[in-house]
Amino acid sequence: MGIVEEINQAHRELLDGERKVVTLRRRYEAEVEDVWDACTKPDRLSRWFLPVTGDLRQGGAYQLEGNAGGEILRCEPPRLLKVSWLYGEDPGFSEVEVLLSSQDGGTLFELRHTAEVPPEMWSDYGPGAVGVGWDLAFLGLGLHLSGAPRIDENTFHQTDEGRRFITAACQAWGRAHETAGGPPDRIAATVANTIAFYAPEEEPA
């Protein structure tokens, strides 16, 4: 399966309330225990996502290198992980929940990110601001579980395949936004803004 086709393997939903909830759901051809280990063992997590440090148990704190940190709110191996997801000086409410279940000999992976989003950021970017980041993480996990080489996060957006993947992910979140009742006239702008953020055009030499 090509990288761009990975987009169609995930189902995306948005609950557009006072707190925004983005949900991604897809099946991986791997056992639940293997997927759980890939998401919770530091040595494996760093191979497809980011290095993590901290007291990695329920009630402990964690920090992803250069990204979010927070508290491990629930940890029920190998099915459920819930953490606060805090980034920046004044992040507000933000939590991520991962649910794993067996499906057709593989694993159904569901991720829900619930957050309070500043109105101006939501108006400019919509759900794609966080959703595309999770799409890239889902891609990384899928490659890791299949034994395929890791993408280079620093240059992926500069490749034709990377730009197609990011554009397709942004458009998919635009459709999820429309399904959730978002204004069509604004959705086109948020999709364009999100593409420009994740895959900016190269400056001419």
How would you describe the overall organization of this protein?
This protein is of the alpha+beta class. 38% of the residues lie in helices and 27% in strands. A hairpin with a 4-residue loop joins strand 4 (61-64) and strand 5. Helix 1 (32-40) packs across helix 2. The radius of gyration is 17 Å and the shape is globular. It starts with 9 loop residues before the first strand and ends in a 7-residue tail after the last helix.
- Which CATH class? Alpha Beta
Number of helices: 6
The biggest beta sheet is recorded as: 8 strands, antiparallel
Q: What structural category characterises the helix and strand content?
A: alpha+beta
The chain-level mean pLDDT equals: 95
CATH architecture: 2-Layer Sandwich
Number of strands: 8
Largest sheet, spatial ordering of strands: 1-2-8-7-6-5-4-3
Q: What are the segments in which pLDDT stays under 50 over at least 5 consecutive residues?
A: none
Helix content: 25-40%
Question: Strand content of the residues, in percent?
Answer: 25-35%
Q: What's the domain count? A: 1
Please name the fourth-level CATH homologous superfamily: START domain
Distance between the termini: 35 Å
Shape: globular
Kindly report the CATH topology: Alpha-D-Glucose-1,6-Bisphosphate, Chain A, domain 4
Helix and strand element order: EEHHEEEEEEHHHH
Please tell me how large the radius of gyration is: 17 Å
Pfam family, one: AHSA1
Protein name: Activator of HSP90 ATPase
Family: Belongs to the AHA1 family.
InterPro entries: ASHA1/2-like_C, START-like_dom_sf
